[in-house]
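User: Sequence in, structure out. Go.
Assistant: Echoing your sequence, followed by the C-alpha cells.
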Amino acid sequence: MNGTPVNEMPAKNPCENHVLCTRNLSRNFGGVQALRNVELHITRGAITGLIGPNGSGKTTLFQAVSGMDRNATGDVRLIRKPILGKRASEIYRAGLARTFQLSRLFPELTVAENLVVAAMPNAPNAEERANQLLRRVNLHYYHDIFASDLSYGQKRLVEFLRVIMANPALILLDEPAAGINLTLRQGLWNMVRELNAQGTTFLIIEHDMSVIANLCADVYVLNEGEVIAYGDLDSVRQNERVQEAYFGT
C-alpha cells in the first residue's frame, strides 16, 4: 500500500467494516487546535501504527477515543457503536482498553491483584488467568510482589497484562517500548503478535520506528493535529508532507 495524502485516504469506508472509526474528530484547548477533523479507520485484526512529531496530537487522540477526555467533538465508533463523550469505564466495558506513557498500577496491590482487579465483573477464573499471563512473560515469580517494588520496565509489562485481562477487541498502546529492556520488549512483542493472531486489534503510538516496522502493517501520521499520510512505513517516509513535518525539508 502506498502512502497517500489525507484527501486520498479511505475515509469514506463504512464504519461497520472497522473496529474503530473516527470522523471529524477535533479537540480545542483555549484556541489551540490539538486535533483537527481526524479520520481513522482501524481494520479488525490489524496492528496499526500512529506516529508523528512530539506535540502532534497522538496522545490527545488516545485520550479522546478512550474516554479520558470527554470534550472532543466529532464521531467515534467502536464496533459500530458511538462512544465519543462516554465515560472511560463504559468504553472499557465496550471493548477498548489502553496503556499510558506513565504506569498506572496500584502500588499497594500485588502484581497478581493488579491484574485481577482489571478483569470484567464476575469474570470466571480471573486469578487463574492472571497467573497464566504472568507465566507467559516470565513474571510469575513476582506474583506476590507489590507493584511498587517492580522496575519501571516490569511495571510497563504488567500494565500491558492488566489491559488484556478483559479480552478487549481493541488495545491502544502508548509508547510501549519506552523504558523496557530488550528481553522484556521481546516478550511484549510476542504477546502482541499472539493476541493479534487470535483476533485482537492494536493501535500503537511509538517513536521507535524499528518497533513500528516490526509490528505494524500500516501507519497513520499526525502533524499539528491532522492526519497527513497513511500507508506502509516505507511509503509514508517518502511522503513530502511527512518529511517536512519531521525534518522541515
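User: And one key feature?
Assistant: The two ends are 24 Å apart (CA to CA).
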